[in-house]
Amino acid sequence: MRMHIPAPRAHRTRRTIVLAALALAAAGCSSSTSNTAASGSSTTPAAAGSSSSAGAATVSSSQCGSKAGVKATGTPIPLGTIATNQPGTSFTDIPNMAKAYFDCVNANGGINGRPIKYYIATEQTNPAQIAALAKQLVQTDKVVGIVGNTSIIECSVNSSYWQKLGFYIIDSGIAPECYSTPNSAAVNMGPRYSSDGAVQYALTQHVAKVVFDQANVPGTGYIAAGPNALAKAANTPIVDLTENVPITDANSVAIKEVNAAGPNGAVILNFTPPQALVILQAAQKLGLENRVKLWGCSTPCNTDFLAQSLGSKWNGKLFVNAELTPPDDTNTTAMNLYKAILKDYGSSVQGGIGSFSQMGFTEAEIAVHALQSITGPYTVQSVNAAFKAVKDFDTGMLCQLWTYGDYPLHIPNNSDWTVTPKDGKMTTAQGCTLISKVDPQIAQYRSAAGTAANAPTSS
Amino acid sequence: MPPWVDFEPFIVSGLALGGVYALSGVGLVVLYRATGVLYLAFGAVGAFGALTAWSVTTRAGAPGWVGWLVCVAVAAAVTLGYGLLFGPALARRDPLIKAVATIGLTLILYGVMDLLWTTSGGRARSLALPSDNGGFTVAQIQVTWTQVIALAAGVVLTVGTGAFLRFTKLGTAMRAMANDRDITATLGVPVRKVEAAAWLGCGILGGIAGLLLADLVALDATTLTFLVISSLAAVLIARLRSITVTFVAAIVIGLLHDLLTPITSLTSYRDMTPFVIAAIGLLVLSRHQVMTQSREEA
Amino acid sequence: MRATLECASPARIARRPTRPQLIKAGVTAALLLFAFFALPELLSLYYIDTMTQVAVYSMVTLALGLLVGRVGLFSLGQAAVLAIGAWAAARLLFATTQPYPLVLLEAGLITMVAGLLIGLPALRLRGLYLALITLMLAGSITVVLATVNFPNGGHGFLGYNGGLLHIPPIRRPGIAASDPAYYRYSVVVAILMFALVLAHIKTRPGRAWAAIRQSEPAALAAGINIWFYKLWAFALASFITGVAGGVLAGAIHYLYSINFPTQDSITLLAVTLMGGVFSLWGAVVAALLYQFLPALLNNWGVSADWLIILFGLGVLQVLTTAPAGLADQVPRDLRRLGRLLRRGRGDAA
After folding, report:
1. Could you list the residue range(s) of the whole structural domain that residue A276 is in?
2. Between residues A388 and A55, which one has the greater pLDDT?
3. Single pTM value for the model
4. What is the pLDDT at residue A186?
5. Which residues constitute the domain of residue C103?
């Protein structure tokens, strides 16, 4: 879907009224807070409490831009993205949230006065289509940067194209090439490193065996290599399973996993939320949830919605790797800005507050930060050089400071939380923990880029 | 080869899966015997009803039983509408053409479902029935009442509709119509009314099956719509004739599918079970004769 | 007796082509030349890539239309056959350095053998049973593919390495590396496949198939070996689809099992029926419906769901009112419109 037109009429009217009110409020206030301000205080890692900062309580969305209330005019800066949108798998919330951020910036000063024009292309996991969309974005829409890509296979299909043209992409990665090529840096950890995080937590709980089950979509071998390395280093046996999705017989899947894990084992899942839900619900109906020591899940399970659907039997039983700052527990400027922008501009974001929209926010935030540093014309060269130059940026949404840099591969988000459902919400079980460098890819990245410092706003 | 005790829980879950297949399979054969149409939209119609029930109960906050009624009503309405609109036009055509026409309905419903109930990022829908809470334990795993109901529904359907079609006037009229509409009309049977009754029954069955399957499998349009393909295996083995054979075949397929799970070399291929059994069964059954789906066989 | 038959054979009767036939041939040639030379210059790369897909799938719908329209065999497993062809081509392209046309030929032959293995026992079934067993076989192949995966440059028979960090792309022929060049390449292959089918239709197999479709007992009585000609149709359809799979592999560079779900076979049948199974143009129309229309709608921001609904309605329409599909109906409607206009002008004069 190509979207380069601002929000529909009704939304625009509503937004104008809000902007007018904000402009009045801003007139009376002092200068806006920059979103790179390290205004939070850190808390103890295991606590589920929030980190707070003075002045973080009331944040208006106008703080997204440099000039509150001033609409950006002038030649638009075209950016593009490709996201999967097909029955059963839809990542459109991520670019839609990025677009909300860009809309906010456009309404509050733009990038040095110029608005961002964001082209969103959706695909149905068809390699021909994905390749064609990339060419359309570059040759027809003439985008100067790619921000927000979230696709099951796009990184694999287009990585050589982006390398050839010199595009440095900021994305939410899934395919191996999102994390193993010089031209892609993700704000999330992706299935492999997120599964690493879940398995790592299970290993710290001294489980006797790990069963790693994942959806049979492209890249299972690449994904499983991480958990296998971790388990091997911990001298814990690991069993790798895959399931064809969509799952029609969750009962046999749950029984198989539980039998393989044994009473002191852990079952770690790597599925999209609907499939993970189906398996966990089946386990519950079969009465199996207590037959293993613990259950784990990679980041897609990190939604309050899942916590609500599962119910209280899973309190403290299911441990989910969280790639992004838990929104409910956090009261920082960045988090409140995210919620404000979501409220004011994010009407097309269907999932509401959650990791998808957080990823979109973070990617847009990084892009805007990079774009604002450019003096001179906005070309493919200048924009992508600016993206590459982002270093030690506090997004307010991640454990660590985020860096793009000039490395052969990028895994800038390699430290995470673990959350667990508690009475319908996901709460923090363990604070920021680095993914172990026993995973060879992590080791390779850290030897090139070093270990990023924790963001001051993270807990 | 894993020890026998590893297989025990899979026998129970296999019976449950067999019940799922039986529900769709028996429904398909019953409908074929009554209308002469292999109603491939059975799964889609059930999914449509179940999603509507979800909207009514979860979004609008109506009580559960209202949702169930809505589900059955919607499925019945869609099926009746299709039957009345396209039944007469296709009545004289080959059973193959009539089945392919229901593929058209399936595609329409599938598109409409994805439009109305979009896939949004992190959310998943689920429909719970009160019979989920409670059951009994067999071979160290819990069996919910829903699974028992599904199996029982399959049995009731098999016995009940078999008797209905054979012993009642309406049932006989339906079978006659499925065989040859014109001759039945000349015999003085009110064909339009009987046809409407058959399609209405279709739809109600589809709605009930949709509710149970949405609970037992997943509330997902794609899964439920194309689940019918796996159920076709049992239908094919029964050669679209015997409801009892369909039921038994479905149970066997479900059992076999789950019993393959602990065998590591075959576990990734276990989703093939319905297809392989159907293919082998058909080829074995047809080894001495050419199998035609002529109208006389209905 | 034999002499009489020889005298009566069509080859002996010299016939000059009639005017409508000449016009039709001329239009066809003009369209093909336009498609080959002019189209890539006029379209953006996005649409050129789309038209390459149209060329690939026109071969698939051609094969399916052949089965459905000429022989009356409804196959609900064409996507699986395409997957086999793509798999074979990918394996050969990674494992060998054979020239591309040879790989396409081999992929076609391998798929043909697979088609024969399926066809031999399956042809004992008729009508609905045959359609359903093709669906069952397609379901099996989909599951096997999900486990076995497509070759991606790995070793062993399956050629699949699951742990790759950088998946190598499937190569293209040297002369057709760029997208517009590959488009032209796929158009040439498609034309060859259409010519192959045309050659069959105009000669004995075509007449035998027409007789079988008309009435099997009558064909049997006329001495036609029904089983043999049905098998031939199966083999030809599988060959063409296998070649299409080879062209697809080079077009998209990366093959995934999730791109060949069982649902696709159903949608393929739907568009083939809509395009029209009794004419070769119907295959092109079907491919346009299947690949061009979704690309267009995606660009306009219209959800692909509307297209699925359209296909469903199309199937119902074709089966109830217009059995010959769009390829037959549109020219007929246009002719009818033309007649109406001429009559109106005549009245007014």
Report:
1. 191-322
2. A388
3. 0.86
4. 96
5. 47-158+169-260
